[in-house]
Amino acid sequence: ASNSSSWISDTANALYAVSNAASLGLIGEIAKLEGTANLFNTNSTAYRGAALATNTALALAPGLDAAVAVRSLMAAGDVGFFKAVGLSLGLSEVPESEVKLFENLYSDHDIYPPKLIPQAQLKSINGSFNYVVTKDGDLIVGRSGQFPGGGHIDLASGQPVQAAGEVKIVNGQIKYIDNSSGHYQPVGLEAKQVAVNAFGNLGFNAEDKYIDKIWLENANLPLGGAWRPKL
């Protein structure tokens, strides 16, 4: 059995190999992956594993080409996706989860029924909204500032999240995404990539729209501080 570090390494190598091959236009169909491996003088077993992962990626991210789907799910840390390629490579010991979660820091706060915005309406409305990506990877968007029911803990029912913050949408385009959630305070590249991928999977161009923020205390402000871009 492989340990977690070698599993991640083997899986990552296989996934990067197939996504790079796809982006170079050297494969047109999944069936050609093994032949492509020979062109690259690469372990064909890794490519067979990558083939299954690519099929999984295309099923999980319909509408994306193979390279984009693989990279998107890989960056998002999709557990089922990683497990598929790990098992296909013959790795019998795989981590149950590589997902980083952020806990509710104020468990004593009340949680109310959320005021949700259906995903189908996101491209036809304007404004700033709260969002969370749940521990299961679901994107939930709600009406920012309309409390009770508009808080991040309301959207996530108080459960841990992979990402949380605010998103501003104007004329169907994302102006910015951030991590301004006082209850969860998500930080790091994992939270950023999860948020970007979650909106990207809905057809938004979310690349380069993420602003990493920090909470700065200021007793002169009504809330005792404010979120500011991290320098």
Characteristic key phrases:
single chain; 5-stranded mixed β-sheet; 18% strand; disordered N terminus
Structural write-up:
The chain has 231 residues and is an alpha+beta fold. 35% of the residues lie in helices and 18% in strands. It has helices at 4-23, 33-39, 44-60, 66-76, 79-88, 152-155, 189-200, and strands at residues 127-134, 139-143, 161-170, 173-178, 210-211, 213-217, 225-229. The strands form 2 sheets. The chain has a 5-stranded mixed beta sheet with strand order 2-1-3-4-5.
Largest sheet: 5 strands, mixed
> Are there runs of 5+ residues with pLDDT below 50, and where?
1-8, 22-43, 92-97
Following the backbone from N to C, one meets helices and strands in this order, namely: HHHHHEEHEEHEEE
**Spatial arrangement of strands, main beta sheet:** 2-1-3-4-5
- Overall mean confidence score, pLDDT: 74
Q: How many alpha or pi helices?
A: 7
Number of E-state strands: 7
End-to-end gap? 44 Å
**What shape does the CA trace take?**
globular
Indicate the percent of residues in helices: 25-40%
Give Rg in angstroms.
20 Å
**How much strand content do the residues show?**
15-25%
Structural class: alpha+beta
Secondary structure layout plus pairing:
Blueprint: H1 4-23, H2 33-39, H3 44-60, H4 66-76, H5 79-88, E1 127-134, E2 139-143, H6 152-155, E3 161-170, E4 173-178, H7 189-200, E5 210-211, E6 213-217, E7 225-229
Parallel strand pairs: 4-5
Antiparallel strand pairs: 1-2, 1-3, 3-4, 6-7
Summarize the structure.
This protein is of the alpha+beta class.
